[in-house]
Structure formats: structure tokens, C-alpha cells
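Progress note, sequence design subtask.
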């Protein structure tokens, strides 16, 4: 393979090209990229780390509280998680709490609200009772509530019910996070580490990554940087970078957007509902919005959209490059839509976007949480809600739910992180840090990590 010669490139671009060489370049300054930046700066002996983001602030897209559900997922109220998955997420959430609770800005990052998952009707209530039996030993603060117990915490949930209700609840724990503030703190903390050079390139769109003899060259609109290791944590764009470089061809991306609706302040905390086991997407919930005080936010919906970035129409052609209608993609889509529950759900979620009828439709779902909600209480939350880049595993003809990582073992990693990717930021980052340390033969201060984050 012909590798570009550094000096030749430099000469051809004149002063435009930065001649900087770093140990690690991170593309994407969302919660994933910024968590990794912090871990590398704080716990390794690597000296030079660079982070690139095309936006003018850190965590401006999916990791911004406007665009996600702001939930610290712990696995106790997520009925779509097995016990194994729940415990993994619980460990990830604990790392976030351990990191943030001692920061001076902790009160702007972590929030304690009561949280519960609600069962409505005999079958769902029995399901929650069974789940409580197998989970409560791992979650000491978890309680099983009947209607009176629910009413004491969330009166509007219990009010006006004729059917039986029950809930699994945790009332005294961190349950909400401003992930954008968390990402900001990661960058701030990385920058103050001694003897480290941490370069943050904002408003910097990376357009290509070229292999060099010992690493890669990251080329952007305003800096070209050579890096011994590159991590791409750029949402759905990570897969685009990977495939351009010949990796991850076994994946396609199914972007699932989430929209929200506002109501007046009707809930004191987070109220989740039980997921239909036939559906690959979580059911809606309601909770107080950390960024819009005095409102309750319901959602997110699950809308399949042909774009990698919400509200950015230039990302439609980028999506099309990742969604060739080959056998693997068509097979996966067919397996999904032939299930009537999934077909109806996809259709319903399209209808949730259609002005005039969307409020009326969404009201039916929201009333499962607060039965007395009225049509005039609901307002569609315009330009709120991001996109989950769900991976299609073409070889196995199925959706790859949760995080996906492509790590070819040659000094580059590509991360795609749908929910609960924000909660898992430090856990995922720690994995990447180990891969980097193995490749670059650098030291990790494991004792400090155990002390600080576990
Ligand atoms: C509706 C919704 C609700 C969610 N709720 C939760 C929740 O409650 N709890 C939870 O844990 N998770 C939740 N998630 C998932 C969570 O938001 C994501 O997992 C997380 O934000 C992913 O972070 P990231 O840093 O990997 O990606 P992003 O936040 O998408 O960051 C990627 C960054 O890459 C940058 N970028 C892209 N291309 C380039 C380029 N070419 N050059 C330079 N920069 C580039 C972008 O500007 C962006 O800042 C939710 C997601 C959605 C959509």
C-alpha cells in the first residue's frame, strides 16, 4: 500500500497542515469521546492526546440533555434488560457516580429523583413481582410497590385507575444525569492533568483518516494531525469512517430517532413502562426535564429515519452509503416487519410525527403513565431528541442492540453507541484504554482507577 509521506503532504498544504503528532486522536467530542479523553489523561502515562469535534461545543448532539432521556441506567427499572445486562449497566452507572459525586460541579451533573417501572393490569403486575424476586438481592434499595405505595410517590400515576397497578421503585439514588455537563467536566478534568498536552479541536470536521507507517493521519478542515492511535466515537458516522477504510462491512446502520412531548409538571420522578418483549425498542417513560424546569417530558418515540444526524439533512446521503439494500439488510428488515407488533409499532411511531393527529395518538400511550392527562396538556417538543445508531448485523440477520465496537487490532477503534451509551461512557472508555495501552505499550494506573471509579 502506498503510504502518504509526511513531508510531502506538509509541503503540498503549506502552513495549513499542522505538523503535530499525538499519541491518541479521538474523533467525536460526545460523552464517549470525552470520557476516553479523561481516562487517558488521568490514568495513563500518555502525554499527547487530541480530541476533534465538528460542533462548536462539547457534547452538542446525542449526548446533550435536550436529545436524550437524561437517565442514569442502572438496570433496576429497565425490563428490557436481562439480569446479566442489568448488572453490567449497574457497574457502568456506578463508575459515573463515583467519578462525579466528588466534583465541585456534582450538583449540576447528577440528580436524585425517585424512579420506577410501572405495571398496569394483572399480567404486568405479576411480571414485576417475578422480576423483583430475581433482582432485589442485587439492588438493595429496590422496592415492590402496590397502588398506595405508588400514590405516595407519584399521586398522578395512581389517581383515576380502575385496574391493578404495581411498580418496582428506587427512591433514594442518583437517577438522572446532565450528560453534556458530565462531558464538559471530563474535558476540564483532562486539561488540568499535570505534564499532559490535551488539544481540543472544536468546529473541526474530520474528513478522512489515512494509514501511516506507525499510526494514522487525521485530516480535518483546519488541522492535520498524526496519531499513533485513533478512536472514532462519532455516533453513526463512526461506521461511515470504518467502512471507508474497509472495516465493519458486516454492519449497516438503522438510525432510530426519538421524539418527546411536554406536559405540565405531573411527575416527581422517572416513571418507565414495561417493554413489549416482541419489540426491540424501549417503551416510553415520563420524567422531569433537567433543562426545562416545571415541565414533564414524555418519550422517546422510536422513529426510523434515513439520516445519521437528526435535523441534519446533509446526513441523508451519508446514511444511504451505510444502508445498501443487500441480502443481509433486506433479510433483517423483513424479519422485523413480518412481526405484526413491530410493523404496527414502526407505523405508529411515524404517526407520532404527523401534526394534528400526533398529540391524540401519543396521548393514549402517555395515559398509561398518567391516566388523567388531557389533549391540551400535551405539546410536541420541537427539535428535541437525537438519533440512536442501531447496528444491523448483516451476517446474522438481526439488530445488534446496545453498543458496537469495531477494533481491527491495528491502532484504530470505531465506536457506535446507542442507549445506554451515555451511562456506559466510562466503562466503554476503560475498554478502549486497555486496547490502546496494549497497542502503544503504555502504563495504566490501575490502583488509581480502582480507588476512584470502583
Ligand atoms: C432519544 C434518545 C434517548 C436516549 N436516552 C439515554 C439515556 O437516558 N441514558 C443513556 O445512557 N443513553 C441514552 N441515549 C443514548 C446516548 O444519548 C448515546 O449513547 C450517547 O449520547 C452517545 O454518545 P457518543 O459520544 O458516542 O455520540 P454523540 O453524542 O453522538 O457524539 C458524537 C460526536 O461526534 C461528532 N462528529 C461526528 N462526525 C464528526 C466528524 N466527521 N468530525 C468531527 N466530529 C464529528 C459529533 O459532532 C458529535 O459531537 C439516548 C439516545 C437517544 C437518541
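Output:
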Amino acid at each position: 500500500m502506498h503510504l502518504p509521506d509526511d513531508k510531502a503532504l506538509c509541503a503540498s498544504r503549506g502552513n495549513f497542515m499542522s505538523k503535530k503528532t499525538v499519541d491518541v486522536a479521538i474523533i467525536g467530542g460526545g460523552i464517549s469521546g470525552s470520557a476516553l479523553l479523561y481516562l487517558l489523561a488521568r490514568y495513563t502515562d500518555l502525554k499527547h492526546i487530541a480530541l476533534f469535534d465538528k460542533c462548536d461545543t462539547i457534547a452538542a448532539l446525542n449526548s446533550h440533555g435536550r436529545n436524550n432521556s437524561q437517565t442514569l441506567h442502572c438496570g433496576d427499572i429497565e425490563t428490557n434488560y436481562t439480569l446479566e445486562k442489568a448488572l453490567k449497566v449497574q457497574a457502568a452507572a456506578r463508575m459515573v457516580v463515583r467519578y462525579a459525586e466528588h466534583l465541585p460541579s456534582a450538583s449540576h451533573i447528577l440528580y436524585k429523583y425517585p424512579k420506577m417501572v410501572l405495571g398496569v393490569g394483572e399480567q404486568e403486575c405479576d411480571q414485576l413481582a417475578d422480576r423483583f424476586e430475581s433482582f432485589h438481592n442485587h439492588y438493595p434499595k429496590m422496592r415492590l410497590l402496590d397502588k398506595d405505595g405508588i400514590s405516595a410517590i407519584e399521586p398522578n400515576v395512581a389517581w383515576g385507575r380502575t385496574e391493578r397497578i404495581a411498580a418496582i421503585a428506587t427512591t433514594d439514588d442518583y437517577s438522572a444525569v446532565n450528560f453534556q455537563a458530565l462531558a464538559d467536566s471530563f474535558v476540564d478534568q483532562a486539561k488540568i492533568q499535570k505534564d499532559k498536552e490535551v488539544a481540543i479541536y472544536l468546529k473541526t470536521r474530520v474528513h478522512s483518516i489515512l494509514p501511516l507507517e506507525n499510526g494514522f493521519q487525521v485530516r480535518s478542515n483546519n488541522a492535520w494531525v498524526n496519531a499513533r492511535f485513533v478512536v472514532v466515537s462519532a455516533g453513526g458516522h463512526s461506521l461511515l469512517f470504518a467502512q471507508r477504510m474497509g472495516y465493519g462491512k458486516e454492519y449497516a446502520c438503522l438510525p432510530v430517532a426519538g421524539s418527546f412531548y411536554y406536559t405540565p409538571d405531573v411527575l416527581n420522578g422517572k416513571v418507565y413502562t414495561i417493554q413489549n418483549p416482541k419489540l426491540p425498542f424501549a417503551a416510553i417513560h415520563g420524567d422531569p426535564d433537567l433543562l426545562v424546569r416545571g415541565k414533564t417530558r414524555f418519550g422517546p418515540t422510536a422513529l426510523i429515519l434515513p439520516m445519521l444526524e437528526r435535523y441534519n439533512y446533509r446526513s441523508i446521503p451519508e446514511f444511504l452509503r451505510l444502508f445498501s439494500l443487500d441480502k443481509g439488510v433486506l433479510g433483517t428488515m423483513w424479519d422485523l416487519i413480518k412481526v405484526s407488533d413491530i410493523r404496527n409499532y414502526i407505523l405508529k411511531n411515524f404517526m407520532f410525527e404527523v401534526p394534528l393527529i400526533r398529540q391524540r395518538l401519543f396521548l393514549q400511550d402517555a395515559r398509561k403513565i398518567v391516566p388523567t392527562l388531557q389533549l391540551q396538556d400535551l405539546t410536541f417538543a420541537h427539535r428535541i431528541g437525537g438519533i440512536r445508531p442501531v447496528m444491523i448485523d448483516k451476517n446474522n440477520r438481526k439488530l445488534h442492540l446496545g453498543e458496537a465496537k469495531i477494533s481491527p487490532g491495528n491502532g484504530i477503534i470505531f465506536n457506535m453507541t446507542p442507549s445506554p451509551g451515555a451511562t456506559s461512557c466510562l466503562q466503554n472508555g476503560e475498554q478502549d484504554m486497555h486496547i490502546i495501552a496494549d497497542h502503544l505499550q503504555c502504563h495504566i494506573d490501575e490502583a488509581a482507577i480502582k480507588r476512584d471509579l470502583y
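Confidence is low (pLDDT under 50) at residues 1-16. Work on this subtask will continue into the next period as scheduled.
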